[in-house]
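Module 6 notes. Inverse folding takes a fixed backbone as the condition and produces residue identities as the prediction. Think of it as a translation problem where the source language is geometry and the target language is the twenty amino acids. Below is one complete input and output pair. Work through it position by position during the lab.
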């Protein structure tokens, strides 16, 4: 007869006193952990929020990398398929550009929707944890240099640029200056596109002044004026969240960018120059956008040569943060539109090799094998 096996998973019998002591210790540990998490969320709510968003990107296969460029250091997320060479050559790479006061984590809800192509989402340099070098002015030209640096780093001859708000302004300006490097353009509630130069200047100057908030009251007023679509009962934002946003603004070159943009004036406006866009463009806009009215998008849809306009009903200027599902659906529709215009070269197969250049991958990126 075989000896009876001992159940190693059966807990040891404890006396009532020891069991009570164990439960008290476990309770203290749980309460202490919750208290630490509550304090961290109270003291650093924005950082905690970005940490969870960053975890979403990492779970989807993205890695966070710090780049050292001649104009400063900045962080970016990247996802580069490496199972086979065909994984790289079947889709056009994406570069996602966030808006004013945001970070690359803004794109976290899209993480699982672009798994079929290389994707890079940078923090715009000069904001928060990506400072520009001393003496380097934080302007739109600096952001264009940043996109060009990323494109050269990965050896991508052509990319699809996706930009929201300020990011749309940056992406459109880059596409106009470098038409041979951009396969397609998608802008979401973009700044700087109003054709009426005088009206555009007055509106943008007013926006820049409102966005350069100095205290909690100004920040709350700005949020209620531009971002909350509910008129009767706007959502309440706790004071500790407002204070955290103010701290992050003061510890970045946010105000410096606003001041530089105000100083340059109409030199940076794009306006009617979008009629010179050579690549297919997609304009996504919320019908209830208070920052930039939907009339701007409708006018751009009349002057851009190859364009698709997608209007989102009951959508304000927050887009992915408010309704990620509809915004992502519009993004996927826009990419399909761009693929259609490129025909065979934008679809599956080896026709897309010209979009990716001569590989030119950096040393810390695993080159694809096989295929």
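Target side of the pair, the amino acids:
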């Amino acid at each position: 007869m075989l000896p009876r096996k001992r159940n190693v998973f059966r807990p040891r019998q404890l006396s009532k006193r020891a069991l009570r002591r164990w439960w008290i210790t476990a309770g203290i540990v749980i309460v202490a952990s919750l208290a630490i998490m509550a304090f961290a969320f109270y003291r650093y709510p924005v950082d905690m929020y970005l940490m969870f968003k960053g975890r979403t990107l990492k779970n989807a296969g993205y890695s966070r990398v710090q780049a050292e460029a001649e104009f400063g250091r900045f962080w970016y997320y990247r996802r580069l398929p490496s199972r086979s060479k065909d994984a790289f050559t079947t889709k056009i790479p994406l570069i996602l550009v966030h808006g004013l006061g945001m970070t690359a984590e803004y794109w976290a809800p899209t993480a699982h929707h672009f798994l079929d192509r290389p994707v890079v989402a940078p923090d715009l340099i000069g904001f928060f944890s990506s400072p520009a070098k001393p003496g380097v002015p934080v302007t739109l030209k600096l952001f264009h240099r940043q996109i060009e640096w990323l494109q050269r780093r990965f050896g991508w001859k052509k990319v699809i640029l996706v930009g929201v708000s300020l990011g749309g302004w940056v992406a459109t300006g880059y596409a106009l200056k470098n038409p041979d490097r951009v396969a397609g353009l998608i802008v979401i509630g973009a700044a700087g596109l109003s054709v009426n130069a005088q009206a555009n200047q007055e509106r943008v100057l007013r926006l820049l002044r409102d966005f350069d908030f100095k205290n909690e009251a100004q920040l709350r007023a700005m949020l209620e004026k531009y971002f909350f679509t509910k008129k009767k009962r706007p959502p309440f934002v706790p004071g500790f969240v407002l204070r955290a946003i103010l701290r992050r603004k003061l510890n970045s070159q946010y105000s410096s960018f606003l001041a530089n943009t105000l100083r340059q004036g109409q030199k940076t406006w794009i306006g009617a120059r979008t009629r010179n866009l050579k690549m297919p463009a997609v304009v996504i806009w919320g019908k209830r956008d208070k920052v930039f009215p939907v009339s701007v998008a409708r006018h751009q849809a009349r002057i851009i040569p190859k364009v698709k306009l997608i209007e989102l009903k009951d959508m304000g200027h927050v887009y992915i943060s408010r309704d990620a599902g509809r915004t992502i659906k519009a993004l996927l529709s826009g990419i399909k539109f761009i693929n259609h215009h490129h025909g065979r070269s934008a679809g599956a197969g080896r026709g897309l090799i010209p979009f990716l250049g001569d590989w030119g991958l950096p040393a810390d990126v695993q080159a694809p094998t096989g295929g």
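Reference fact for the lab report: The chain has twelve helices and eight strands.
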